[in-house]
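Lab meeting prep.
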Amino acid sequence: MLPPSVIEEIQAETELYERKQGACIDALKIVQHHKGWVDDESVADIAALLDMTSHEVDSVATFYNLIYRRPVGRHVIKICSSVSCWVMGYDGVLSQIEKLLGIGVGQTTSDGRFTLVANQCLGACDHAPTLMIDEDLHHDVIPDTIGALLEKYS
């Protein structure tokens, strides 16, 4: 069951929409903010609050790649895999991250520190290749700087 404070946050969001189902993405983001990811129980709780089915909420959650339906690390690395980043060195940056962390895309380090996910576009094509760690955008990334960059996130 969602904590009362989370339920209150979700209910406050529903007031911003003509139909409370319109707050589905907001509700998922609220739960993820508090739990780090959205589990099946939370999907059911959100569905009940918004008069939706669990399947409908899960469909929304799995459509958006920034809603995590399984546990993630303390820090999520979103590497941009757009054409611009790919042309400007995505492969080398990705290879270096995988080498240093010992994980591939969609995996979490054994210590739970990092999860690596691909993201189709981070909206900074003029500074490709780019990646985000949590909410921090890093641009013009080159493989040689990845180690120092990762050290900033404990």
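Slide two material, second protein:
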Amino acid sequence: MSSDVPHSSGIEERYAGELVGKLACFDRMIIFGTWQGLCHAGGVTRELVQRGLGAFDLGTFAQSLSEAVRQRATALAREHGVEITYLPNWRIDKEEIAQAQLRARGDRPGLVCILSAIENCQTFKSRKGRPGQPAWIKMTQGRCLHYYLYFYDEALGLIHLRVPTWLPMRLHFCLNGHAWLERRLRAEGLEARSVDNAIVATNDWQRAGALSAKPPMEWLQKHLQSYIAQCCPDAARFGGYYLTLSQVELSLDLVFRSEATARELCEQLTRQAVLAVRVTDLARFFGHQFSAEAEATARFKSVAEGVLCMRHWLNGQSLKVYRKGAVLRLEVTTYDLTFYKHHREVAKRDGTTEWRVAPLKRSLYSLGTLFGLMEATCRRYLEWLSQLEDPRLGRHNLDDITRSKRDEAHRSWRGFNFFAATDHHILVTMLRGEGLLSGWTNRRLREALGAVYRSGPVSRILRRLREHGLLYRVPRSFKYYLTALGRRAVIAALKLREHVILPTFDPAI
């Protein structure tokens, strides 16, 4: 009997011969810079009181800070020989403009361009107090001018810093983890090649994974602070800027030798995942227990010609699978780091500390722990996807059943034709109840097939079924039972004839 059926315990095992490498890496990261002394209404009020100003003097105080930001942006543009481009519509793709400017100037470190746009932001407004009470300041939504300063960094690639011109002036850093890792690999003397924001080639995938899992957080902290000092005047005042993680993406990439393999696998997984995944499964992927308050949604879409994307949401966290060329990517995105919990030291209000399971801190120094938690989410999702049906197995089994085979004595045994009446009769007969319960013998099968079948031909039928993996023989007996493949083949033959072939050829239709 044939024993060359591919192993199906997981995607990596099934595609081992076509898989080039596997890499988990941070992707898009958005980092907030909060001006500690002016990030809340109480801090602003305290600063105004120290200057002898009232709540309605907020505009006068903030205007001087805003003018300093504008002057610094103008000075940087003049120093680097670029112009500040005002965008009348904030929805314009700023990244595309910066990439075009980078291609025009070349990959040399420094300021690439400065864009400006009026955008929504959090801000402060003065409010009158009730009779007998002083005026006060509250945080609200507003609009102000924002500067986007794009830099090409030797270690991080293309990054940008968004600087608002009105209090509380919360900064937004945006950088790409794949570009960062690619440069770290080259700094260690390793080869690295990226295509469409995915590392597709390196001479040491294991080392690449180890570097990705240990981001140099202290170095990143100092590096980003140097950009803040360069772009933001008075950055060291009011307690300086404190960096926190706002949005983090991590991708688990399976790099294949051919794009066709990745396309086929992605189409199969996305179409099945949209129907099969449940809320309890999603919670388990993220390391949570299911709760009645959990909100989960799924979205299946075509993001480009021949590129499908399946995206799941759980309480605001995102998990998706899609394809980038020859790369199958599983990507998890967190918009709130406290969604993840881990065992850490917690400081109490009375000054004591204890170790317990607590939400992850939003600090930049949580990147190392966050990598392990997010990578585990992608790994659980990959393990679950591996349990879905594999069409390659179906094609292999169909080919194995329908083609001729040779036994050890080099005798040929023809395959089964699902369209032939004789073969269809044999396969459907094997599904009868007496054979499923008590097994098939030569005599029992002769009676089931009809009087025209004699002992010799039935023996050859049994041998033919065994050679194609549809029957197995009970040791030390003459009983035969259908294998799992045999049951699927019989059901396929029945469905094909009764639900496809006969209705199609019905002249009444």
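Talking points for slide two:
The chain has a mean pLDDT of 89.
Residues 391-503 form a domain with the Arc Repressor Mutant, subunit A fold (CATH 1.10.10.10).
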